[in-house]
Amino acid sequence: MPASMMESKYVPRNSNEEAILEMIASMGRVEDHTAPRMAHAEDSNSAQNVWTDRVIIIGAGPSGMATAASLRRKGIPYVLLERASGIASLWKERTYDRLKMHLAKEACELPFKAFPERYPTFITRRQFIDYLEEYARDFCIQPRFNETVQSATFDEASQTWQVQTIAVGPFAEGPRRKLVHTGRWLVVATGENAEMVLPSMPGLNEFKGTYIHSSQYKNGEAYAGKRVLVVGSGNSGMEIALDLANCGANTTMVVRSPVHILTREMFGMSTFSVAMRLTKSLPLWLVDYILVSYSRLALGDTTSLGIQRPKVGPLELKCKMGKTPVLNVGTLEKIQSGDIKVKPAVEQLMEGGARFVDGTSLEFDAIIFATGYKSTVLRWLKDKESFFGTDSLPKERACGRSWKGRNGLYVAGMCNKGVLGGTTDAQRIANHIYSTYFTGTASSAEAEA
């Protein structure tokens, strides 16, 4: 039996689990869990069926791995599909060198494993990647890499999910092969950042300089002495602008819409941790008032710098619109000192630079688009129940109901709450599958949570 098929083998640990194993065995499926049957295929391009009663997890990022570990702890078989060649490809391949978590490490942990005590409060990109790789080893998580999902459809007749993939590498047993995975449950864990977004900006084709998306940016060394425009004022845009300025680039950033800039820490604790504690006993509007007031005292009035604050508070904006406040890591000080210039929206790109909506023009050698990412779930998921909106995100993510659909459909890590949200989703999913389908003890409240 291949090692990749063994990671989720059901191992009983108590009498309840032994009873569950007996139940599964009585249905004649135990052997099929650990050694899926494959239909004969005459050549490397023909379809090949992989039959399994496991949970099918799509995506081996933090949310997918958290789901796999949570299912394993419950003794629930699964198969984990990943289109990239390794785990957490976003973190490894599409993040810049100086990236640090903006939240305290306690808010970035996956289930059942804390960060090492030696790690700082705000961990680095490299430390998080090391943690994820160790997490995969600790929980024997062995995804099927290089396997891209083409479609996922719920079959009413068999009451199962049919997931069609194209595999290359070891699982293809050849250069390329089509596969079909069948499972009772499907977990979408492909994240909110599956594909980069480049804006349709007038004149981009005429611009003679270089331009990249922030996912392609590593550090500012190559931009020393150059005139660089950063389009986007979220956390990535702010931090890339800071990195460029520190590396000697003549940096300008575009701030098109109002944005909340908060301190990363309050009273010696991470701002996020303080906010979470306050929301347990205070209304959201009052917590927002405290966060904004503290930031104004600590950072000054950003309006004078060309950065307007939204009328809606930062937490309310996050809950309703999914827009994350910026946590200042030094960018604001560079703006105040003049090392980073702020401009309004771009009206037109030109051969040698850009014209802005305030009528001014500047010359640039390079442009970095920190314009975010988008989900691509609806390209492959046949969403008959319309659980996802046109943006390929769960419609009710702001209401706390983004983790569970119908017909055994679950979603992990697409609730606009970062790693912590994905971890919460993963444990909810494992608990729900275990209690509802294996023991039948889930309450109606749990079923609708």
From TrEMBL:
Catalyses which reaction(s): indole-3-pyruvate + NADPH + O2 + H(+) = (indol-3-yl)acetate + CO2 + NADP(+) + H2O
Record keywords: FAD, Flavoprotein, Monooxygenase, NADP, Oxidoreductase
InterPro entries in alphabetical order: Auxin_biosynth/cation_transpt (IPR050982), FAD/NAD-bd_sf (IPR036188), Flavin_mOase-like (IPR020946)
Statement: the UniProt record of this protein carries the keyword Metal-binding: no
Transmembrane segments: none
Cofactor(s) the protein needs: FAD
GO molecular function, one term: N,N-dimethylaniline monooxygenase activity
The EC number(s) this enzyme carries: 1.-.-.-
Keyword Transmembrane helix: no
Similarity remark: Belongs to the FMO family.
Protein name as it appears in the record: Flavin-containing monooxygenase
Protein's organism: Ceratopteris richardii
